[in-house]
Design goal:
245 residues
Length: 245
Amino acid sequence: MKPTHKIAAVSVLALIVALIAAGLDLPVKNSVGELVARGKSYGNWATLPYLALYVTAAVSGMSRTLLNILAGVIFAPAIAVLAVLVASTAAFATTFCIARFIARDWVAKHLEKIPTASTFMAAIDTYGFRLLVLMRMNPLIPGFINGYGFGLTSIRLGSYMLASILGSMPLSLLHIYLGWAGGEMLLADGQLPGDVQHTLLISGCVLSFALLVVISWYAQNTLQSPRYAVQPSDKRETPQSDPVP
């Protein structure tokens, strides 16, 4: 199955599950309600354990997609965006510094087990900032490369951080919206007529999933274009200046 087909299949499946959960009186509704109530009871202090959990997931090599969605469920939209922005920035910096300054040999050893790692790493060494933005937009890049691999390239920390934030935030914002919309559908409080509320929220979810597929497809196809063709190399250069365009 092609990568873009995988993205579409996963998105459609997740959408179906969300719609079923929203349309039926499932036990998950009570669980989500309890989770939201617990998060709100701590106020903005709830962002601290969320930040710790986010960075821990990044260091462990886990995907943070569910954590982005969780932020949309638990926090108010503005707080969710801020929490994800701060948490992802801390996660990017932590894994990069571990790879470059603390566990370089350990990271290099694990990258040898990933067939595409040398190609991705050489591409970042060659194209730098712009390519890293595209790679952050592509959810199909292996997690270990996204987490630690870039710390072994020649890109500068400042350029790496800016490219990572710019590339990851579009998908993160969509994840947050999906979390918020899913929570609203499960916890509808009657402020709008049920049918109208569900129609608006479901339409937003469908549009968000469509955008997820389009963004991922664009990033995947751009990365595969001849413009970014590069030969894999096992040689890691000493970090040099990588000006931001």
